[in-house]
Amino acid sequence: MEKEISQAVIRRMPRYYRYLGELLDDGVERISSNELSALMKVTASQIRQDLNNFGGFGQQGYGYNVRHLYDEIGKILGLNRQHNIIVIGAGNLGQALANYVKFEKRGFIINGLFDINPALKGVTVRGIDIRMLEDLPEFVKNHKVDIAALTVPKENAMEVANKVVELGIHAIWNFAHLDLELPDYVVVENVHLSDSLMQLSYNIVKHEQEMK
Amino acid sequence: MEKEISQAVIRRMPRYYRYLGELLDDGVERISSNELSALMKVTASQIRQDLNNFGGFGQQGYGYNVRHLYDEIGKILGLNRQHNIIVIGAGNLGQALANYVKFEKRGFIINGLFDINPALKGVTVRGIDIRMLEDLPEFVKNHKVDIAALTVPKENAMEVANKVVELGIHAIWNFAHLDLELPDYVVVENVHLSDSLMQLSYNIVKHEQEMK
Question: What percent of chain B has pLDDT over 70?
Answer without folding.
Answer: 97
